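Sample A.
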Amino acid sequence: MVNDEQLAKMHSAPGFVAALDQSGGSTPTALSAYGVPPSAYASEAEMFDLVHQMRVRIMTSPAFTGERILGAILFEMTMDRTVGGKGAAEFLWQDRRIVPFLKVDKGLADTVDGAQTMRPIPDLAALLARAVGHGVFGTKMRSVIHDADPAGVASVVDQQFTVARQILAAGLVPIIEPEVDIRSASKAAAEALLHDALVAALEGLDAGQQVLLKLTLPEQPGLYADLVDHPRVVRVLALSGGYSRHDADERLAANPGVVASFSRALTEGLSAQQSDEAFTATLDESISQIYAASTT
């Protein structure tokens, strides 16, 4: 059963969504940017312990509160661990009034027709039940579009909405994330194809069903304005996609109604070697800039 207070916050409150969901493939890069090189850990378990320490430091920072942050996306192992003496999702909502989301995809399949759909998600029903038990509001799942190929775009959107229906049936609200690669030579054309495919897919949802969309900041400002106002869309989020925080914020400000859901751009400048005072000041500056761009 969807939490009405959380739904209202995600739909209407000012702010942005923090993406803290780096998985096995992206964790080494995130840790290196944080000042923790691969030589600092000897196993995958040690790596995940270190990235959890980074996430705990972010989530417990005085700068990280629901006043400017709408929600936070968690990796499965983060949901299963504790923050501040309670489950991570429970801590986010009960202590910080930040709506918790869970990344549910298991990575990307090989490229076909210029796009990467999601790998199969085994035991999704059990994972969704666990998420509900932790008070999670919604989920996130990522695909990637590399080229303006109609077949590839269609396969990504069809799969995303097929899985979204299962998530909705479990009582959770899905974030649909069909990322368009910012390095694509046909980025603008791919985004136009994606826009039309999303509009058609949204019309196929049942009455009363709603999703969030997480999209690459488009080449054409305002491209997704109709999706921002769509009755079956709770909110349109933007991923930073490899843009620097400055560039991502600049592009975001050119798309009114779209709010950030940044990962790399959020943690830019944070370091394991910083004092708590310096860490909080850097995170606060990052949050302030992303909040401002999300409320323009």
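Sample B, a different protein:
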Amino acid sequence: MVIVSADALERLKQKIKNRQVWGLRLSMKPNGCNGWSYDLSYLEEPNASSDAVFYGIIAVDPMTFSYVDQISIDWTEDGLNEYFEIRSPQETARCGCGESFTL
């Protein structure tokens, strides 16, 4: 399950509003000092036979979905920095900069 805060959902909708895309793909990719990072990328169309779809705009592929049970997406504003904060209770560690995590 993907849980998106109201602020994050509004920001996600704004990101796709002026683009010719269906929505966004949430995936995990090998990256950083702790092994994995989350990726939100534009998506033309979800794979109807394998993607899980949430909120009508977020698609998650089967491999990622197997690792992101109860993932949460929130919108964070910290001074001049604004970003999506993605967290999963299955994470066991995060790097110091917060860009990568371990499962």
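Observation for Sample B: The radius of gyration is 14 Å.
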